[in-house]
Specification:
The complex is a heterodimer of chains A (338) and B (146).
Chain A (H helix, E strand, L loop, with lengths): L1 E6 L2 H9 L8 E4 L6 E4 L1 H5 L8 H4 L1 H6 L2 E4 L2 H15 L5 E6 L2 E5 L6 H15 L4 E6 L2 H16 L11 E3 L5 H9 L11 H9 L5 H5 L3 H7 L2 H10 L30 H21 L4 E9 L10 E12 L2 H14 L1
Parallel strand pairs in A: 2-4, 7-8
Antiparallel strand pairs in A: 1-6, 1-7, 2-3, 5-6, 9-10
Chain B lengths: L10 E2 L6 E4 L18 E4 H5 L6 E5 L15 E5 L9 E6 L2 E10 L2 E5 L16 E11 L5
Antiparallel strand pairs in B: 1-4, 2-3, 4-5, 5-9, 6-7, 6-9, 7-8
Classes of the chains: A alpha+beta (338), B mainly beta (146).
Chain lengths: 338, 146
Amino acid sequence: MFALVDGNNFYVSCERVFRPALIGRPVIVLSNNDGCAIARSDEAKALGVKMGQPWFEIRHLADTDGLVALSANFALYGDMSDRMMSLAAGLGPTQEIYSIDESFIGLHGVRDVTRRAWTVRERIEQWIGIPCGVGIAPTKTLAKLANHVAKSAERKPGSYPAKLARVCNFAELSPQEMQLVLESTQVTEIWGVGKRIGAALVEGGIWNAQLLRRLDPSTIRRRRSVVLERTVLELQGQSCIKLDDAPAPKQMIACTRSFGCPVTDLPPLIEAVSAFATRAAEKLRKQDGRASQIQVFAHTSPHREGPRFSRSIVVPLVRPTADTRLIVEAAATGMRAI
Amino acid sequence: MTFLPIHNQPAPVTDTPCLVLLVGDCVSAGFPSPAEDFAATRIDLTAELITHPQATFMIRVSGESMIEAGIADGDVLIVDRALKPEHGSVVVAIVDGEFTVKYLHQRFGQFKLRAANPTFPDIIPRDGQMVEVWGVVTASIKRFRK
């Protein structure tokens, strides 16, 4: 059995802990340099703000609907995440930190799971101030879905049975209830079903999770992919994806940013690229890694009219290094070249 | 992480140990023998002040409303959100979306926030007003010089 513990609207919830005046108001957190929305409160979602939507498209909502936009404070979110993860770890013997606001918990040998999940959820909310959803199921794919159900049942009453709000344990559902839940879930909500595969499935009449679950896994492997076969097996309750409690070291480190206004001169670009390269080198050293090549890219906003610019270059390093000076130098050379 | 809480705004606090020397048990106003100092033990200042690392934050006080509780403008408070607020606790509360530090008065079904300064009135929630306890104050750090 697995549990997925996930902070609701995580970045916004973090901000609200320290700015209680924002509770109940539509709030979004913007990416670096205030480019686009990367977290939305329920109220902001209700205003129709989309994930990743550029700020200039929704700026007018600040005047008409009191939308509050905050610049991201990643140091704070990281600190709050560490606190949340360490409390979530109390739910079971193993933990996989999946992202800044989600962790899978292995529940091997844990009894009375639902009650414990409620206790941990309440503790995270009281100690740290972050509301969470907990999904519990025999596989990671189902746990992810159970988490989606726990959140949706709370945020959108009527989408799923109200008793599944906040903490949703699929193991406690009857086969009929389970079927109903799967029928109310669009196939694109399933973990591992990407945009393209999702569209293809819908095209073929497989539009909800129940229809996907009833497919024959070996046929799926022949017709689509091993990955989708694994998803189907996981939906059927057969665990295929193990808990990854020691994440693989990163193959790639990215530091990117969009500028608040168009940049046309070289010096500010070189300056920005140097700053990113410094950050990337820091990250690299933190995980004890070395870089053998650096990619530098720049492009104009895809939301802007007029001529487009988009170029990138890969600069190989003489030998693998984590030295800030060498990495910055290579990055600046790359920038000049494009 | 360096800690620099601004006025009336909580900040997360790190739980990295900070070891200092504990000299003697209690300082009296007399002159202790310098030789006794060698019996000192190292204590972890963080462990001493913080019981629930995940639930602990700091806030710098602004104003004099708690002066008679020994909490003055500029003091830094350690706030533990894991503790259950009780009658008489010093708490950080949210009143109309703003943070405030007060005594919690919770008796016979009555809830109010009391200042430790007679010039400040009690805060009794009006109808529909949200008054909420954010955390319990466990210690105050008062600096005499830097």
